[in-house]
Amino acid sequence: MVKLIILIIVVILILSYLGINIQKIAESETGQANFGYLWNIIKVIWEYLTNFWNEYLKGPAMSIFGKIPLPPAVTEALK
Fold first, then answer.
1. What is the sign, positive or negative, of the torsion defined by CA atoms of 23, 29, 35, 36?
2. pLDDT band at residue 75, thresholds of 50, 70 and 90?
3. CA 76, 74, 51, 61 torsion-angle sign
4. Is 41 exposed, middle or buried (0-12, 13-18, 19+ CB in 10 A)?
5. pLDDT above 90 covers what percent of the chain?
6. How much is the CA Rg of the chain, to the nearest whole Å?
7. Mean pLDDT of all residues in the chain?
8. Contact 25, 16 (CB under 8 A)
9. What is the pTM of this model?
10. Residue 57 to residue 7: CA distance in whole angstroms
């Protein structure tokens, strides 16, 4: 998580150095359309991954994890 935050800060600094105004991009009609398009792609990928987990991976993972003693917090998170 810390690496992601540092990466975001570095990207913002690089964009600032190149003279790119993020606020203008975010507020422009084209920028908002692009962000909306990216958000829709992220939602579709998330739905696909959660369905894949629920249909194919959850059962085997739960049977494997059921045989390994785990802390209660982890067991609750996997339910």
1. positive
2. confident
3. negative
4. exposed
5. 54
6. 20
7. 88
8. no
9. 0.58
10. 31
In SS3 terms, the chain reads as CHHHHHHHHHHHHHHHHCCCCHHHHHHCHHHHHHHHHHHHHHHHHHHHHHHHHHHHHHHHHHHHHHHCCCCHHHHHHHC
Q: CB burial class (10 A; 0-12, 13-18, 19+) of residue 31?
A: middle
CA distance 13 to 11: 5
CB 78 within 8 A of CB 62: yes
